[in-house]
Amino acid sequence: MVAPVLRSVRPAVLADDDALAELDRSTWSTLHAVLPRPAPPYEPFFDAGHGPEDFLVVEAEQADGQVGIAGYIRLVPPTPLASNAHVRQIRGLAVATWARGAGVGRTLVRAACAEARRQGANRITLRVLGHNTPARALYASEGFAVEGVLPGEFFLNGAYVDDVCMGRSLGPA
Length: 173
Known about the structure:
By secondary structure, the protein is an alpha+beta fold. Helices cover 20% and strands 36% of the residues. The protein has helices at 17-26, 104-118, 133-141; strands at 5-11, 55-61, 67-76, 87-95, 123-129, 145-156, 159-169. β2 (55-61) and β3 (67-76) form a beta hairpin. The longest helix has 15 residues, at 104-118.
């Protein structure tokens, strides 16, 4: 299998709604999802609390020459408080099955850090399920450290799962 060729990361636009919704549905797993599996009728991907301005996407060219969205990352302020305005939080990352192993996740994490810096943040945080070993390894390799664990915070697929809080400095903004 030929690895996809990554294109540049770009902000999401409203026209990405269908592609992102399909990506979200096709990658749903209890490895990372705390909400039930999406079922028809499907809601739009973008809504009042999840606008295109919160997302970065990366496109990639597949072996057959087609270009598609290979993944997305959501980056938002963790709270509306002025005292917390120096922080951004990753609240979602998905990589298309056909694009896994090509560096899409790493590209998106690095892009989110750069975008957070551009927005004036000097810190970035996230939450990841304790059993999501691949995601935790990616975040650790990009400088995120475990800053707290909420033991058994979620009950998924018949088991209690920890919620792991991770974060890192972005340096002076």
